[in-house]
Design goal:
- It is built from no helices and eleven strands.
- The protein is mostly beta strands and about 130 residues long.
- The chain starts with a strand and ends with a strand.
Length: about 130
């Protein structure tokens, strides 16, 4: 069992940047190196959509077409945190952002569908507005 905590959300002007972090907690020293991790977002009245994902060793990554060239998923050396660097933010990026994790041995793909994951954080609000 892993408990996920997101941080880094906030209010930013269009064209600005934010960096979200997803950290594992619950057991001392727990990391995400055995997990595929995904970032999702959900705006009011809309379905949850996949934004970015990475496989357990970051070997495979993927991004939604709407964020390609603007968002980058990465992790720190020990994979204690999975980061989502969001650049050139647009008002349509306004959402609650969630990270999710799947315990897996698969390392050559990651997953952009919410149903693939069994651990979720509580979410962090990102608002892009002038």
């Amino acid at each position: 069992q892993v408990h996920l905590v997101e941080s880094g959300g906030g209010l930013v002007q269009p064209g600005g940047s934010l960096r979200l972090a997803c950290e594992a907690s619950g057991v001392f020293g727990v990391t995400l190196d055995s997990y595929s991790v995904g970032w999702f977002r959900q705006a009011p009245g809309k379905e949850r959509e996949g934004v970015s994902c990475s496989s357990r060793s970051d070997y495979a990554k993927d991004n939604a077409d709407s964020v390609k060239g603007r968002f980058v998923i990465s992790s720190d050396d020990a994979k204690g945190k999975v980061l989502l660097q969001m650049n050139r933010l647009e008002p349509d990026d306004t959402s609650v952002y969630y990270c999710a994790a799947l315990l897996t041995i698969v390392d050559d793909e990651c997953y952009m569908l919410a149903d693939s994951y069994n651990f979720w954080g509580q979410g962090t609000q990102v608002t892009v507005s002038a």
